[in-house]
Write a structure and sequence with these properties.
Layout: E1 4-15, E2 18-29, H1 44-51, E3 59-64, E4 79-82, H2 94-104, H3 110-118, H4 134-146, E5 152-155
Parallel strand pairs: 4-5
Antiparallel strand pairs: 1-2, 1-3
Helix pairs in contact: 2-3, 3-4
Length: 156
């Protein structure tokens, strides 16, 4: 039987006069791939930002393993997230960007080559990211999200 990994309970978020998320409730079970579908402005990204503690909800809650993201011990090993493809320095190589993240999180550098292989960027490991195509930037963002070998991946 699958356990609940992610739960939104009556989540709401208001920005001044704009209600971005209104009483959203959902559960994501362990071992499942789940997508949130809706038009632009429906609140999908806002709900994920609430889940990751980047935005405080106006009401309700968004929980991972029964608690808030801020309560996770070693969150890089629990949750990896790709919210956009701008989370790295364009003047550094793919490998250098990953080394910074690995160092900050005390992750063994051997994991860098593993994630570059997983996202098919091993051949571009020593190239500066400013020359990367959008697809390559997205794959590097995914590599960064997977660096801690997380249980949960959140892709926006």
């Amino acid at each position: 039987m699958s356990s609940v990994k992610i739960e939104f309970k009556d989540l709401s978020k208001r920005y001044k006069d704009v209600l971005a998320v209104s009483n959203f409730s959902a559960q994501v079970q362990s071992g499942r791939v789940t997508g949130f579908l809706g038009p632009n402005g429906a609140g999908k990204s806002t709900a994920l930002r609430c889940l990751l503690g980047l935005v405080n909800p106006t009401g309700g809650s968004a929980e991972i393993n029964g608690g808030s993201y801020s309560q996770l011990v070693e969150p890089i090993h629990k949750v990896g997230a790709v919210l956009d493809s701008r989370g790295f320095h364009p003047g550094l190589t793919a490998k250098q960007n990953l080394k910074i993240m690995a160092s900050a999180s005390q992750i063994n550098f051997s994991r860098i080559d593993e994630v570059l292989e997983l996202v098919d960027l091993a051949g571009a490991a020593n190239k500066r990211t400013k020359g990367f195509s959008l697809g390559m930037k997205q794959r590097l963002s995914l590599a960064i999200a997977m660096l801690g070998d997380p249980e949960i991946l959140i892709l926006d």
